[in-house]
Every structure is written in structure tokens, then in C-alpha cells.
Amino acid sequence: MRAGPTLTLGLLLATAAVAGERTVRVMAIDGTERTGVLRQVAPELTVETGGEDWRLDWSEVLELTPWQPEPAPPAEAHPLWFEMPDGARFGGEIVAAEAGTLTLRIRSGQTVEVAATQARAMLRASRSARAAEAARRLLADAARRTDALVVERDGKVGELSGDLLEIAPTAVRFRYKERSLKIPWDRIAAVLPSPPPPRTAPAEVLLRDGQRFAGRIDGGDGDAVIVEAALLGRIAIAWDHVERIECHSRRVVFLSDAPVLRYEAESLFDKRWEYARNLDLSGNPVVLGGRTYPRALTMHSRARLTFRLGGQFRRFAALVGIIDAMGTRGDAHVAVIGDGQLLWQREHVQGGMPPESVAIDVSDVQELELVVDYGGDLDLSDQVAWVLPRVLR
């Protein structure tokens, strides 16, 4: 892919002499949280809070959320969604194609050039629910090594496995069982090239309309943030369009992805509650404090999860509370124990309360336990989520 000039998403005040003030909430990887006025975006993040400047390298940031006093800008219509192996997901259309390189017009009206083999998926926005499910299943198939199409016509959905020969603005040529088929885009729900190798970006900028762009935070001001995207070039995104920025550090290990050493559970009514990774105990996304979290450990009283740290980490951090689905119900005691010693606890964590922040020293700890115990209502509605549970090297 050839990187072009900086792309502009939303209205940027490019000629403004002084950047507008932007209030942001920053969560560091060590659990520190502060809200203040954004003073500098790069090379290091600077936020003024309490009359002082708080400076952080972006490798120390877990996430940044801008305060949005206005409703999200109206979403623009677009025919296709593009998914990239670095986590980027954006809307647009194919306006030209030559020698395997696609020229895309993205939602800002700007254009980028993308090698078709670099895309993870091209999804028609108007695909049916059945076609969308077929595409999700194919994308999740780790054994798939070939190109694939999901096609639909007259309410029927089909899946083709073969070779992509050509992608054009109006149609796709595809080799299927030794036949070359030319299929118009209005019959295609998804184009899924042979899976490209996954890529990891230092940060992902999540937009309020569902788009996301992955790359390195390279600059910005109170009006916009600039992302240097490996697959798309330099992109300037107005803060008004940003939901949050999520950062990735090699120093962080999420316990929601880590192996569990032991799980112990006790129930009052002969029902054994299992724990859940990245979902609540009903299989739904974890919502805590009005926000949906992709990384979490959900437990029900009385239970404890034990992880082997082996003395390799220095800090544990998380947010913890009873999930929003319980409403105001639930009353639990929660604790963190290291090698049999109590490191942190909160009693009577109740439904409807704001999440509790945990940030504690775990230096030299061999085994770390997350504990959820009965509160004032025994085990009724005690679905407790530890969100963004992480240890730091």
C-alpha cells in the first residue's frame, strides 16, 4: 500500500492559530486515572490537571477518552466496510482497481490505495443477517487458507471457496471449481481474501460511528489527533468523532487472556457458577458503569480465581463492580490476595454503584487470587466483573 497525504476525517480547523481546549480522561497502564485539559498529544501526552501538567509516554497509556458534550455527528452512508489485519475497520467504496491495488474512497471523501491481499475482509453494508453470520464464521475459521466469497440472491446465502482473480468497482472475478465467475457487487455480501498475517499496532482510535483506525499516535492538538497508520498512512481525526483511544503495551498482560491456575466456587443452592472470560455469566458483553468492556473476568459469589504470576510482575490494576444487567441488585465483598496475604478489599460492592478502581503492588507475588464473597444478600445477583484486569512487568 502506498501511503498518501494526511487524510482528514471530519471538519478540521487547519488554519486555527490556537487549538481549542479539549477535556480528556486518561487511564494509565498502572491504574492511575486523571481527567484534565489536553495540552500536548505527541511525542508525549500532556494533560493539565489540578494546575499541574501530567506527562506520559504513549507506551504508559491504557486508554484516553475525550469528553463529548455534543451528540455524535451524523453517520454517513457507505456501501462497504473494510477490515484490516491491524484492527482497522472503516467505511468507504472502491473507486478504481489496477494490478491488485484498490483505490478506496473512505467516508471523509479522501482516497487511499490498498493492496487487495492486505485486506482481511470487504463487507457489503446492506448484507443480510444470515450473510453476516456466514462471513463471521469464515473469518473465525483459523484453518481457512483460501479466498472466500459470501454471496446472496433472492434470500438465499451461499459460500464459495476458491481464488480471487480480480476486484473491480462493479464486480468481482472469482475462480470456483475451475470456473471463472464474474459476480456483481449487489450479489456479494463479503469478500474474504486468504487470511493475511495479523499485525499489532501501538494504538487504536475508535470512532463514535463504529470506525476504527490503528497505528501510532503521531501528533495533534485540541481539535484533532493524528495517527500514523502502517496500512493507510497519516490520518487526522477530529476529536468530536473520537469515542476513545486504546493503547497496547508489551509490558501489560491481561488476566482475561491468561491461563487460570485454579478456580474454586461454592454455592448456597447447589448451583455451581462458572467464571466467564470477556462476557457476563449469561454470555452477553460485559457492561459496567454504562460502558461495554471487551476484556473482563466475570465471577459469581462465592468464588476465587487464582493465577500464577511467578514473581514476574510488579503491579495489578482493574476496575471491579456488579454488572449493569443486575440493576441495583447484588451485594458482594471483593478482594485481591497475593500468596495468602490480603492486598486489597472492598465490602458491600452493590449493584448500581460506580466501579471500584484497583491499583496495587504485586512485586514478588507468586500466586494472585481474585475473590468474590457473599455480601448482605447472600449470593443473589452477585455477578461481579473485573474489567481490564491486568498485570504489569
How would you sum up this structure, described in words?
The chain has one helix and 34 strands. It has 393 residues and is mainly beta. The strands form five sheets. It has an eleven-stranded mixed β-sheet, with no helix packed on it. A ten-stranded antiparallel β-sheet has the order 10-9-8-7-11-16-12-13-14-15. Strands 22, 24, 27, 29, 32 and 34 form a six-stranded antiparallel β-sheet that branches. The N terminus is likely disordered.
| Quantity of strands, as a count | 34
CATH architecture of the largest domain: Sandwich
Q: How many separate domains make up the residues?
A: 3
Q: Describe the strand arrangement of the main beta sheet, using strand numbers.
A: 1-20-19-18-17-21-6-2-3-4-5
Shape: globular
Radius of gyration: 24 Å
Q: Quick check: average pLDDT?
A: 89
Distance between the termini: 35 Å
